[in-house]
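USER: Note each token:
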Amino acid sequence: MTAGPIEPLEPPVWYAPLRSPSWLVPVVREGAPTIVFCAEGWDDRAVGEAGRDLRLGLPVYLAEAVRFGTNARPFAGRLAMSGSEVWPGAPVTVRSTVGAEGRASIALCVLDAAGDVIADVAREAHDEATLGAVLDGLPRAVVEAVGPAGIRPAWSSLYSVPTGAALAAYVRGQRACLRLRDGALPASADPDSIAARRADVRAVLEALGSLATSTTGPVPALLFFGALLAAHDAGSSVVGDFRMQASVRWTAATDPVDPIYAIAALVMRVFGDLDASDRRIDVLRSRDDRSMRRWLADVQTVT
């Protein structure tokens, strides 16, 4: 499934940077109904960086929530769509609109393959707290709207996102993590471009690290660690500055059943803690889980 040269993202956004831990995500059955989330186009002059991350983070967040909360195969468009487009080949397209800086209405338009409207969802959010409440309710509104397309709710023991203003930060972080995945360093050797990009990477990691260490649950930590690995894989020089925030999160994960315990075995290697990583890997290998063992083999190649 493509739209021009830009392939849609199959969530979660942290999955590929964390070496595809398939044991963490629900199995999507063959023939599962497809749903694509994308943002409506907008005038770039009307919104700053945080607003753009919210607008483009919303489809990624909704696709992730649907991946963990339904029987569907969701995708998220990396770029905004304009006009009356629907995603080619998708039975359902959900297009989202966010007011400037996220302080006005949020609207979802659910379209079938022919571009006919299945449902419209509109919510008002005028500050970060009410924005978080709106974002928290949108996945359920989507599931209710797409029920006629054969998409059914499901339950995940892993997926629990923050609430309130922290959820707004999480949604912005989805897009910010994707920006790191798509290129943490500029292709140009221009010193000003490199310095600006380095500052952007640092700001993203600071925000996601703060979210991961100030909220409970594994999902914000997975997003932070995914961003760290994306920046590391791109050769960013700022990753080493986030050892303390990363270690705060992995030190708290002492139970091998905790997914952060396992993911920490990967993240430790980025910071050169190979012995500590290997000790966790030895513990995890005792589990009767083939997909985890394959993942652990990939983890040990990271240095």
Notes: Residues 1-5 have pLDDT under 50 and may be disordered. The longest strand covers residues 105-112. Strands lie at 34-39, 73-76, 92-98, 105-112, 117-124. The chain has nine helices and five strands.
